[in-house]
Amino acid sequence: MKYLTLFLLAGLLTACSPTQDATPDSPEIYFQEAEAYQEKGLYNEAIESWEKVRDSFYSPELTMLAELKLAETYYLDERYPEAASAYRDFINQYPGDPRRASATYWLGMSYFQQMLSVDRDQTSTRNALSAFNELLRLYPGENDEQEIRSLIQQCQNRLAAHELYVGRFYLRSKQYPSAVKRLEDVLQQYPDYAHNDESYYNLVVAYLRMDDRSKAEAIFQDFSDAYPASPYLLKAQKKLEK
User: How many domains does the chain have?
Assistant: First the structure.
């Protein structure tokens, strides 16, 4: 990758100024410094050099390349919010650029790295999911589809686990209509979630506590059809028998 970007740089600089030698404050020198700093893991220094390349306004293409390398360096430095912002800016500013697919992937990964535990806000998870879905929709075949689908599944699992967590919280708090809504959302929006047997169980309990026995029995029937071997099924049956 290093040699590819240096090759691109050489072409850009030669095309724009074939007879001009590099000076200490030229974009070529800053570019080479940034590459060297980045390779050594000196990301703050690399970022400063990429910014100098970008701010030189040497050419539109060189500016685009510097902006993309800035985003890459933020990601390598685990500064994921800055990386996400930089990748999003690149995507919005250059919608026709052929590197947009790669930028969309790394945008998704920047959000993915910011995902929080199920008991906390899931904005980053939703943003990652949106980026990965956009990648499959707009750029089929340009990335490892199996990897992207795995990332999508991980995001969906996190969101489902969050909804189940909130549903259980409402159930404990005796806010039964709110619990029902959350638990039904899990089953409808994330039918492949591995722990939906627990969603069914809590939904049966919620309807029983709302004195809606007929609905609880209907949910139990769906539960038994979907998860006949679940340990939660026997627990739900005992609740119904009381």
Answer: 2
pLDDT digits (tens, 9 = 90+) for 39-85: 999 999 999 999 999 998 778 899 999 999 999 999 999 999 999 99
Boundary (domain end) residue, out of 48, 77, 106:
77
Q: pLDDT for 204-228, tens place per residue? A: 999 999 999 999 999 999 999 999 9
At 17, the pLDDT band (50, 70, 90 cuts) reads very low
> What mean pLDDT is predicted for residues 138-152?
92
Domain boundary among 56, 77, 98: 77
**Model confidence band, residue 143 (pLDDT cutoffs 50, 70, 90):** confident
CATH of the domain at 203: 1.25.40.10
Dist. CA 19–CA 16, nearest whole Å: 9
Residue 35: which of 57, 62, 55, 6 has the closest Cα?
Answer: 6
Q: State how far the Cα of 74 lies from the Cα of 25, in Å rounded to an integer.
A: 23
Contact 15, 65 (CB under 8 A): no
